[in-house]
Design goal:
This protein has 377 residues and is an alpha/beta fold. The chain has helices at 18-27, 47-58, 69-82, 85-92, 102-110, 124-131, 155-163, 184-193, 205-218, 221-228, 239-246, 260-275, 304-315, 323-329, 337-351; strands spanning 9-12, 31-34, 38-40, 63-66, 96-99, 139-143, 147-148, 167-171, 175-178, 199-202, 233-236, 252-253, 277-281, 284-288, 292-295, 298-301, 357-360, 364-367, 369-374.
Length: 377
């Protein structure tokens, strides 16, 4: 197992495929806590989707935009549950079908339909450019990614089609509701606000909105936003997911490809860069992470006291840090300076080389720094 994420804590808010994302992160050593921010409304119980499907069957669309393979397949499966799938597919056979990317194309073809066009880059903007010149007066059905409450995940896309003169009927496949109040998600939201994680992953704008709303309900919105702007890095699957955070001036990090595997790889690559303090001391490469330290690539688990001591020393690399300063850094610092000596002893034992932390007689301690590679957030 890789140790590239050893010592990092990641919160996962996904409602779907959370186990897959957690497995990928844990395989690289991360400590992961997964609590879904939203729960899916069963499609066969979705009266809005049912009603709009019946509307399309009664008055077939001139244009159908398919944005995701999962959403389109779910829509057809729900129609099968209602006993109207054949009628729906028949109503769509006369439509000009534009599918966003090869997976959406595959889903369309699976049910015997044919796409007119698909962009190579899976770009919604490319679909708008392709269609906008000749859709005035058209009845257009747009299968959406998913939504929660009144949050529309693709307002620009729908608005641009409307400005081009189309009558747009959104198809809200995979709608969501927020996690129930008073449960594990409240605890996760509070822990994010308290900066108990290094990163939080989002795979939908709905999950972002649910998190922000829950923080407001708990009265910790400001604390959550401060955390997301500093110590807790928001890892989003793509720009659509990141949009609610970007509007609040929260920095976000996304892979180039909007895929779960790409998000996992992005976290694996970026989190150590963002949250690692790396230096060389007494001939060893030391990587200080959130809850552990790597010495020459080997992960060393530190007690809270040892980690607090190391961080205080690393804050002034190579400089003498007084016993009083180290005492103040210790958790529950009501002890005497003997607690500092105990913490130093345990730290040296864990690091495996007592020379990494040097004693400066009558003054304190310092890291025996050779050079500093980087300082991260």
């Amino acid at each position: 197992m890789s140790t590239s994420l050893s010592g990092y804590r990641v919160a996962v808010t996904s409602a779907r495929r959370a186990d897959e994302l957690c497995t990928l992160l844990r395989r690289h050593g991360a400590s992961v806590c997964a609590v879904p921010a939203i729960t899916m409304i069963d499609l066969t119980d979705d009266v809005v989707l049912h009603g709009r499907t019946e509307s399309l069957i009664e008055t077939p669309p001139d244009v159908l935009v398919v944005t995701t393979a999962m959403g389109f397949r779910g829509w057809i499966a729900a129609a099968e549950g209602w006993g109207i799938a054949d009628r729906l597919i028949a109503a769509l056979t006369t439509a000009r079908i534009v599918a966003r990317g090869p997976k959406a194309v595959g889903a369309v073809r699976t049910v015997g339909l044919s796409e007119e066009w698909s962009p190579d880059c899976e770009s919604s903007a490319a679909m708008v450019d392709y269609l906008k010149a000749d859709i005035a007066g058209s009845r257009m059905a747009v299968q959406l990614h998913g939504t929660t409450g009144d949050w529309d995940p693709a307002p620009e896309l729908l608005d641009q089609f409307r400005r081009a003169g189309a009558e747009v009927l959104p198809i809200p496949v995979y709608r969501w509701r927020p996690a129930q109040p008073g449960g594990e998600f409240d605890q996760l939201t509070a822990q994010l606000a308290q900066r108990q994680f290094d990163a939080v992953s989002f795979t939908s704008a709905a999950a972002v909105m649910a998190t922000l709303t829950r923080a407001a309900d708990l009265g910790i919105s400001d604390a959550l936003l401060r955390a997301l702007r500093s110590d807790v890095h928001a890892m989003c699957v793509g720009p659509l997911t990141a949009r609610p955070l970007a509007l609040l001036n929260v920095p976000t990090y996304s892979p180039q490809r909007m895929r779960l595997g790409a998000l996992a790889r992005h976290i694996i690559d970026e989190l150590p860069r963002l949250r690692t303090f790396t230096l060389h001391a007494a001939g060893h490469r030391i990587e200080v992470r959130s809850s552990c330290v790597l010495v020459d690539g080997a992960a060393k688990a530190l007690s809270p006291s040892s980690m607090a001591t190391l961080r205080a020393l690393a804050h002034q690399p190579g400089q003498v840090v007084s016993r009083q300063t180290l005492l103040e850094a210790l958790p529950g610092n009501g002890a005497n300076t003997h607690a500092v000596e105990t913490a130093i002893l345990r730290l040296r034992t864990t690091l495996g080389d007592k020379n990494i932390v040097a004693t400066v007689v009558k003054r304190g301690y310092r890291l025996a720094v050779d050079e500093i590679d980087q300082v991260a957030g």
